[in-house]
Write a structure and sequence with these properties.
S-2-haloacid_dehalogenase, 11 helices, 6-stranded parallel sheet, 2 domains, DNA polymerase, domain 1, (S)-2-haloacid dehalogenase, Rossmann fold, hydrolase, (S)-2-haloacid dehalogenase activity, alpha/beta, HAD_sf, single chain
């Protein structure tokens, strides 16, 4: 292992928190009592599937920058329509949209992040906006030193500016930082900017062993089973 990175910057959706299980639960809790009998997992996946296309319109310059909360709500309205859900009050749509603020962490995340924080700065490098990340951190006991990423950089991953401006916000060169993610494309983009990389396995994000992110598909600095394994490989003691 080379010199310890000064900062670990984390993808959040899927890497730190379980979006699929959390959104499935939240959608069912709101909609089932109203008589809707949906495939709740399919609902969560459909909503999430609209995430990249919505950001691509911004990355391409077809639309100016807006926070992810705005995109999530627009995508939710489309998903509700696709699943034939009608008659919701605006407040109910808003409540369900804020489910992204209440995503549950993977079991190792709170304690693993606390351990990693003893060895380096830990910060988000997420496409999620600041309010979303702060509320999620408070919900899930995630001990970030800083909230960085798209809203700070005014750019959505995998645009290089998202990574470079996040490093710059910490007054660090990319090579002094490490991107931590469960997604191969995220790490490839981060590596292209000079960041070091750590792939963390999250097999239950999609629950599909054939999914492109079910395993590491690149030459990364570290491949870890979870955050405690990452800390072990970085040489950060358990206590």
């Amino acid at each position: 292992m080379k010199k310890m990175p000064k900062a670990l910057l984390f993808d959040v959706f899927g890497t730190v928190v379980d979006w699929r299980g959390s959104i499935t639960r939240e959608a069912q809790a709101l909609l089932a009592p109203q008589g809707h009998a949906l495939d709740w997992d399919a609902f969560a996946r459909d909503w999430r599937s609209r995430y990249q296309p919505a950001m691509e319109r911004i990355r391409s310059g077809a639309r100016g920058f807006v926070r992810l909360d705005v995109l999530h709500r627009e995508n939710l309205v489309e998903t509700l329509e696709a699943f034939g859900v009608t008659g919701l009050a605006e407040t109910e749509i808003d409540h369900l949209n804020r489910a992204w603020h209440r995503l549950d962490p993977w079991p190792d995340a709170p304690s693993g992040l606390a351990r990693l924080k003893r060895g380096a700065i830990i910060a988000t490098l997420s496409n999620g906006n600041i309010a979303l990340m702060v509320n999620m951190a408070r919900h899930g006991d995630l001990p970030w030193d800083a909230i960085l990423g798209a809203e700070v950089a005014r750019a959505y991953k995998p645009q290089p500016e998202a990574y470079l401006r996040s490093c710059e916000a910490l007054a660090l060169a990319p090579g002094e930082t490490m991107m931590v993610a469960a997604h191969n494309s995220d790490l490839v983009a981060a590596a292209a900017t000079g960041m070091r990389t750590a792939f963390v396995l999250r097999p239950e994000e999609y629950g599909d062993p054939q999914h492109e992110d079910a395993q590491a598909r690149g030459r990364y600095d570290i491949i870890a089973d979870d955050f405690h394994d990452l800390a072990e490989k970085l040489g950060i003691a358990a206590n």
